[in-house]
Amino acid sequence: MRYNLIVANRAEFDWDDENAKHLAAHKVTPAEFEQVLNNDPLDLAYESIDNEERYRSVGLTSGEIPMKKQTKRIVPAFATEAEEAKWWYKNRNVHGKQLLAAVKSREAQVLTKEKLLERIAASRKPPAPVVALRIPEADLALARKQAEQKGLPYQTYIKSLLHETLAEREKRKVE
Are the C-beta atoms of residues 47 and 86 closer than 8 Å to each other? Predict the structure, then answer.
C-alpha cells in the first residue's frame, strides 16, 4: 500500500492487488480500512519489517462512530474479598466487552505521561501525622499475617482496620 498524507491529516491510498487481498483475508474492505485510519485509530503496536512501517491499530469506520453516551458500570457490594474476586472472574468477559466498547466509543482514553503526572500531583496529600502505639505482640503478629494474606503492608492494613472501625462506629452513632 502506498499513501501520502494530504490536507487535514487525511490519508490518500493507492491500492494494489496484494494489499486488497490482505485486507480481504481479514474481512475488511479497502474503504473500511481507509475510514478507520482517517478516524483517529488507537495504535496498539508498531514494528518495522524490511524498512516498512507496520502498525496494529483498532478504530471505527465512519458509520460506527456512536453518539457519546455514558454507560454506568454497576459493581455490587461484597461481604468478602473472596466473593469480590469470584464476581470479577465470573464477569471478566462482560468487562472485556465493556472495555472494547469504551475504546470504540472513545470513552476510554489513553493515559499519557503528562496526564499521569498531573493526577499524581493532584493526589498528593500532606503526610499524615506520625503516631506511636503500643500494640500487643500477638495482635501485631495477627495483623502481619492477615496483611500478608491480602498482599498489603501490615501498617497499611492496620490503618485501614482503624479507619473502618472508626467510620462504622461514627455511622452507628448517627443512626
Answer: no
Q: ∠ CA(46), CA(18), CA(16), 5° rounding?
A: 100
CB 111 within 8 A of CB 126: no
Task: List, for residues 19-54, the tens digit of each pLDDT value.
Answer: 778 888 877 787 777 777 776 677 677 677 777 777
Provide the grid cell at 146. Answer: 492477615
pTM summary value: 0.33
Is 152 within 8 Å of 161 (Cβ atoms)? no
Three-state DSSP string of the chain: CEEEECHHHCEEEECCHHHHHHHHHCCCCHHHHHHHHHCCCEEEEEEEECCEEEEEEECCCHHHCCCCCCCCCCCCCCCCHHHHHHHHHHCHHHHHHHHHHHHHCCCCCCCCHHHHHHHHHHHCCCCCCCCCCCCCHHHHHHHHHHHHHHCCCHHHHHHHHHHHHHHHHHHHHHC
